[in-house]
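Lay summary. Proteins are chains of building blocks that fold into shapes, and those shapes determine what they do. In this project we predict the shape from the chain. Here is one chain we studied, written as its sequence of building blocks.
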Amino acid sequence: MTNLNKTYNVSSLLLKKKRIHYGEEVIRIVLFLSALLSVATTALIIFILLKESFSFFREVSIWGFLTGTKWSALIKPHSFGVLPLVCGTFQIVIGSALVAIPVGLSCAIYLREYASARVRNVIKPVLEILAGIPTIVYGFFAIIFVTPILKTVFPSTETFNAASASIVVGIMILPMVASLCDDALRSVPDSLRQGSSALGATSFEVTTQVVVPSALSGIVASFVLAASRAIGETMAVSLAAGATPNIIMNPLKSTQTMTAFIVEVASGDAQHGTVEYYSLFAVALLLFIMTLGMNMVSNRFLNKFREVYE
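And here is the predicted shape, written in a compact code that computers can read:
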């Protein structure tokens, strides 16, 4: 009887191991298919962009597209120099970075190094709420609230302008900068802080001369990722910045970004199959390359200057 029980127990154990093995195989296959789906989706997007952009570049030279200083894709006579759109895009990116980077980094430093648990529990949810607000709401906020204030200070401000768009996009990417910088600061071990304090450094000196330099790679990577997020912003800049593609340095004037033009064409202003329609994909391809390049620079910087603590 004892031998039978032992045999039964061994058989049950083997059956249980087989079930666990099959379950692990199913999980592995599901995870592999998920990863394959993401890769296939990315490859399909790139294929569509290249295919449709090829139809555009059969009629417009790549050199003229990249170096032209006049953009008039929907109004005759047509002109497809993308530099005005690129200029408007970077105008928004630089302006939003001037808002988000100092405020976001300062917020992260305060939350990690100085804030009490009670204050941190209040500020963190507020930042998360900012991240959850729809982008079109930011656009209306820029028109209704930010632009009137700018007009009060600078009477020459146009109704649609790059400055108000930059401010709201900066507010939009602020949670990303603060969160990523906070993660970078948290990766610095407390032993460095304690050692610096033991040597007589003040709290401010510990933060600025030890903690921030030690987390510099993650901080810079967060700046680049936030900038790439600002490049791809659509609805807020479409509403706030306007639709005037010009190469101008005055942020109080109307401008047009690459994403705003994509929205304009996608809304039905260009007939399918025309060069105006295919210009959408050419601009989207250039936008994809710019964003990809910024992400690659961020990852390269992070890998090169990353500090590893044990």
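What the prediction tells us: The mean pLDDT is 82.
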